[in-house]
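hey so i finally got around to running the thing on that chain from the lab meeting. sorry it took forever, my laptop kept dying and i had to restart like 3 times. anyway pasting the input first so we r on the same page abt which one it is
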Amino acid sequence: MVVFDLDRTIWDHEDISATTPPYRALDASRIADSGGTIVTLRSGVRELLGWLLERGALLAVVSWNVEWIAVEALKSFGIHSYFSFLIIEFHPRKDRMFEKLFRASGLGPKNAIYIDDDEGMVRLVKKRYPEIHTILYLRDARSMGELRRLLESLL
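ok and heres what got predicted. didnt touch it at all, straight out
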């Protein structure tokens, strides 16, 4: 199972919860909220998610956000259906969110790769689940292409 954070990982915006749906598509990789704030999907995200699904990976989201807003953004980008599990809650305890994910998926931390841009969140989850494999986006991989090459070596 490959688990993604959203803000600054899947898209460039630092806090999708601060935007105001409805969103409108500007093009294939950009949406604008009702106030004109633009959110850009990271280049190569769709291709990476598709490749992971072709490889048989189960995809999930664990994100500190307002759930309905994040889901609307995922739907507006057309990537909502790629994910089997969405654990999106408005609190910073991603370790607790992972507990829910593992319970819902029937998989454990040994079967998960967690990708997040926030070093503190990665440390928090790794402390609770030392056997989970973590990737710090923008440090371990600076693009979706680099992330794919890293994942190729792990899958």
